[in-house]
Write a structure and sequence with these properties.
By secondary structure, the chain is mostly helical. The chain has helices spanning 3-7, 10-20, 26-37, 41-53, 72-83, 86-119, 123-152, 154-157; strands at residues 24-25, 57-62, 65-70.
Length: 165
């Protein structure tokens, strides 16, 4: 089977992605693939077999477990073959990287301008702040006056009792 035939299957590609992070048992691979692709255990085993027989995966026994890992040889061969075509997409990817960075920079600068605008003191903000402060002072003064009044005239602040007949 040709390398692109092997890599063309999404299940096999996902298995290689899992194995790229390190060696995994067949059971661990099967659990992930079954959950993601909703396929049976024998179907996962078949995909592992295809990878193994085509040189993309290595397997070793550890007791009753089979541990799989990536064999980089075929991937390096595929990468070498693709190398002669990279000039078709490399400049476009570089341009995309530049545009993404430019967009991130513009969003960051816009956010900084918003934050800076929030810090600008305008006459309207000064008047609004003075109003709030004045209202708070009035409320505090009224509470203090009420407390003084209650202290000077305890009968006024005592709860009213019903008259006896």
């Amino acid at each position: 089977m040709h390398a692109f035939d092997v890599l063309g299957d999404p299940v096999r590609r996902r298995i290689l992605e899992l194995l790229a992070d390190g060696e995994l048992s067949a059971g661990a691979v099967t659990d992930v693939i079954r959950a993601e692709f909703l396929i049976t255990q024998p179907a996962v085993s078949q995909q592992l077999k295809v990878l193994r027989e085509n040189g993309f995966a290595l397997v070793r026994a550890e007791g009753t477990r089979r541990l799989y890992s990536v064999d980089t040889g075929p991937l390096q061969e595929t990468d070498a073959w693709l190398d002669r075509f990279r000039h078709f997409w490399a400049p476009h990817l570089d341009a995309l990287t530049t545009e993404l960075a430019r967009g991130q920079r513009e969003r960051r600068l816009a956010a900084e301008r918003v934050v800076a605008a929030d810090r600008v003191v305008t006459p309207e903000r000064v008047v609004a702040t003075e109003r709030v402060v004045t209202n708070e002072r009035v409320a505090i003064t009224e509470r203090a006056d009420a407390a003084k009044q209650a202290a000077m005239d305890p009968a006024a602040s005592a709860p009213a009792t019903p008259e006896r007949r």
